[in-house]
Amino acid sequence: MSETILVVNAGSSSIKFQLFSVAASDQLQRRLKGQIESIGVRPHLIARGIGGETLIDEAWPTGEVAGVPGALDKVVAFLRAQIGSLPTAIGHRVVHGGPDYSEPTLTDDAVLKRLEAFSPLAPLHQPNNLAPIRAVRQRQPQLPQVACFDTAFHRGHPEIADRYALPERFYQEGVRRYGFHGLSYEYVASQLPNVAPDIAQGRVVVAHLGSGASMCAMHAGKSLESTMGFTALDGLPMGTRPGQLDAGIALYLLTEKGMSAGDIEHLFYHDCGLKGLSGVSNDVRDLLASSDPRAKLALDYFVYRIALFAGMLAAAMEGIDAFVFTAGVGENAPDIRNAVAQRLSWLGLKLDPEANAKGAGRISCQGSRVGCYVIPTDEELMIARHTLRVLRAQATTLLEEKHA
């Protein structure tokens, strides 16, 4: 029976999953992808094979799948019918690894407890990321589960990039710049030698633009700086998050407007960003289709901040050789790419309109001093690779202990 790796990315009301088979020489082959959504409302499981064929499309009454454990039961039952057994291991996306975890980690109760302590730093993500790990441990404690962190790729930053201008005690407690979307950036870094070998070892700014958005400065495939910091609120404006803010705004809302900490947290995570600016939508597609001037303002602001941070990241690397777009908006919105490129023309970046419209791999002109690329991200494959590597390392350790 072949080994399989299940990759899980859990949200507040949905669980996205992909299944990979482990082929010869530990090559990973994607077998299917799916999600169970509207958990607690109208649970709906849909999954498709690698050719796009529908493998399951089923919904249940609310009471039958009220939470994450019940949703996982439905996913596992479906997978067992597909592959005849449980997966060999499960890899999970976990947004925040804090100061303790700088690489993918096999989970146990102690690891889970430590990761729960970082929930206030990523309240939209961390509790939901950990819920399926906990549920699987209760039902199948023998099944290896690996936590793969969005912060890990950035942990090699120089200290000067990670620090805030705060007293030392806060840094020692873990108040520092972590950066996020690391699994996406790590995948892009792994693809650069194939897509653009001439700049893979150079200075590259990568823009992960989606509902959550950030940018990363990479030199020779390593992260040097990121727009996100202590939490996933910092940096670029996002679908519902504001991005960079003067800290005094939070103090003003607290002391002058009488808002509670919970009110401010809800505002910052749910009602700001493109949604707050436009009053129309948090979805770039809706804003591009809208004639409302506030929608245009939101998009102009989004593009302006991307260009602004590109200059900052280029300064961190003392130059720039290429700019890469990735994630939902970066891969699928040529109008946004074009607007960003126009603002970066002072760097010598010039797009090829036809290539940009097609979303080609390279979208800059031959004469462009700074290369510009579109590289689709694949966080799930990255998680599967990490999970398999941890499994192999664990097997090697057990073998060495046996021989000893």
Tell me the number of structural domains.
2
Helical percentage = 40-55%
Give the overall pLDDT as a whole number: 94
Cα(first) to Cα(last) distance is 30 Å
CATH topology of the largest domain: Nucleotidyltransferase, domain 5
> Biggest sheet: strands side by side, in what order?
5-4-3-2-1-6-8-7
Radius of gyration computed on alpha carbons = 22 Å
CATH class term of the largest domain: Alpha Beta
Percent in strands = 15-25%
Low-confidence region ranges: none
Structural class: alpha/beta
Number of helices: 15
The sequence of SSEs as H and E is EEEEEHEEHHEHHHEEEHHHHHEHHHEH
- In total, the number of strands is 13
Largest sheet: 8 strands, mixed
Shape descriptor: globular
Task: Determine the CATH superfamily of the largest domain.
Answer: ATPase, nucleotide binding domain
Based on the structure given, which CATH architecture of the largest domain is correct? Answer: 2-Layer Sandwich
